[in-house]
Design a protein that fits this description.
elongated; mainly alpha; single chain
Length: about 170
């Protein structure tokens, strides 16, 4: 990642990039951890490998956000994009998560889970339940972190894009 001063890239834009990257890594590490646990206990391919793929899909979504905000950062550094546009694109990437996460959660809880439980009667295997619980918790925290990112971008926009205060000439007695 190109190093930049606060004057080149405002901190809120860097934080948005960081949030997307951290969630990309967190989802991947959660999938790797669950794979390690499930496969080491001899669960086999279908019960040991397939359920954590849900977390890999979430990592790919977060990775898209990371790449988008990284491109914005590089374009600002190259002068191809101004800071106002950078704030808009970063806010869009965070708003995408703010809208997507509850939608995913709601679709899962209200539509997909009941259908899956009907198709797979009885108790779900431990590997499936552990993966789903992990994903549900992480999606809620993912949503909260990007909600804070939107808030930080709104505040940062006021600080970094505020028009310069007019210089008032000091009245000197004549």
């Amino acid at each position: 990642m190109p190093a930049a001063t606060n004057d080149q890239i405002p901190k809120p834009l860097t934080y948005t990039l960081m949030y997307h990257f951290l969630w990309f890594v967190l989802f991947l590490l959660s999938a790797l951890t669950l794979w390690g646990i499930f496969l080491s206990t001899g669960r086999g391919f279908w019960l040991g490998f397939v359920p954590p793929l849900l977390l890999v899909v979430l990592a790919l979504i977060a990775g898209i956000g990371f790449l988008a905000t990284y491109v914005v950062r590089v374009q600002i550094l190259l002068g191809d994009l101004d800071k106002g546009a950078g704030f808009r694109w970063s806010a869009r990437s965070s708003w995408a998560v703010v809208l997507l996460a509850p939608t995913l959660f709601g679709v899962w809880k209200l539509v997909a889970e009941p259908l899956a439980r009907h198709a797979w009667p009885g108790l779900w295997p431990v590997t499936v339940q552990m993966t789903l619980t992990t994903a549900e918790v992480e999606v809620v925290v993912w949503w909260l972190s990007h909600l804070l990112s939107v808030r930080g971008l709104a505040r940062g926009r006021k600080v970094y894009l505020a028009p310069a205060a007019p210089q008032v000439a000091a009245a000197t007695p004549a």
